[in-house]
């Protein structure tokens, strides 16, 4: 299987696990050295031109913190997820290149739309982002090594960011 297709299949499987709330299975897709972050976007004047903070994050996680979140989400003590957020992820425009410096990794850039439904609300809250991933593609098992999700909104329309992006 070529790298493009392998990455697309990996990202589809990941989205399915998260949408189906199969957090233990999703956690198995993570490399123990995972860096998982979503920096804050700013709308004010930005001198570097990116509008992306290098010091403030919506999410800045590692393997241990994600493991703790997954355990809490699978328990009855996930108060921010009661009732649970129902999500539907659409991953598109996957672009794959070889990762600089490590031939076992590929760099995958993708667009993400997450439709979030809570309680009895009639309208979803929609979160969109561009993701920059480093994925170790293996025979049978692939692992997410790094994810940086750049959210499009400066103000998130969610009550809490308790989902994985």
TrEMBL record:
Q: Which residues form a coiled coil?
A: none
- The name this protein carries in UniProt is Aromatic-ring-hydroxylating dioxygenase subunit beta
- UniProt similarity note: Belongs to the bacterial ring-hydroxylating dioxygenase beta subunit family.
GO BP field: 3-phenylpropionate catabolic process
Q: Which organism is it from?
A: Tardibacter chloracetimidivorans
GO molecular function list: oxidoreductase activity
**A Pfam family this protein belongs to?**
Ring_hydroxyl_B
What keyword terms does UniProt attach to this protein? Oxidoreductase
Fetch the PANTHER family from UniProt. 3-PHENYLPROPIONATE_CINNAMIC ACID DIOXYGENASE SUBUNIT BETA, BLR3401 PROTEIN
């Amino acid at each position: 299987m070529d790298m493009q297709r392998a990455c697309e299949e990996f990202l589809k499987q990941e989205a399915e696990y998260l949408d189906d709330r199969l957090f233990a299975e999703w956690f198995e897709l993570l490399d123990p050295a995972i860096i998982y972050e979503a920096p804050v976007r700013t709308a004010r004047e930005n001198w570097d031109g990116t509008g992306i903070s290098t010091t403030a994050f919506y999410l800045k996680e590692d393997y241990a913190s994600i493991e703790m979140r997954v355990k809490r989400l699978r328990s009855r003590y996930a108060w921010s997820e009661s009732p649970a957020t129902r999500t539907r992820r659409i991953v598109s425009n996957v672009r794959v290149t070889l990762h600089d410096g490590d031939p076992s990794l590929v760099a995958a850039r993708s667009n993400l739309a997450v439709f979030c439904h809570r309680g009895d609300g009639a309208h979803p809250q929609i979160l969109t982002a561009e993701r920059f991933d480093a994925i170790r593609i293996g025979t049978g098992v692939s692992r997410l090594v790094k994810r940086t999700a750049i959210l499009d909104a400066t103000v998130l329309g969610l009550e809490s960011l308790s989902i994985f992006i």
